[in-house]
Amino acid sequence: MKRTFQTQLRTGGETGAWTVLLIPFKVAEVFGFEGRVPVKSTTNGFAFRTSISPQGDGTHCMMVNKAMQAGAKVKAGETVVVEMEPDIEPRVVPVPDDLKRPLARHAEAKAAFAKLSYSHRKEYVDWITEAKKLETRAARIEKTVQRLIEGKRKK
To answer: What is the pTM of this model?
Structure first.
């Protein structure tokens, strides 16, 4: 089911702040999935896991964030060769030990965290691990646990 194709990276959004890649085939016909589809992709030897999203007209696109652009050494306006296939492997977010401990102490928070989608768990973990100071990291962990207990999403 792996497909290789050539396409141009385009800017998107009202201000052109996004970089997107249009998928040049019918995803439902080729991959057998509709809606948002998790994929494994490689561009210029840079491999990554992401999702492609439906556009409402039968086509799909993929957001290409700054990390993906840097890894593949590409930018908007360039034509790229992309290798892509459905990603059917489970997506697991490695939870740092300093978050695991308070989650273990708060069953409600642990259960709420387990119910979150991969992307929401990743958002919390990234927010925590991107902290530069230990105090900031600790405060973010505390906020995360509290928000999970209260049933609130990260803002």
So the answer is: 0.70
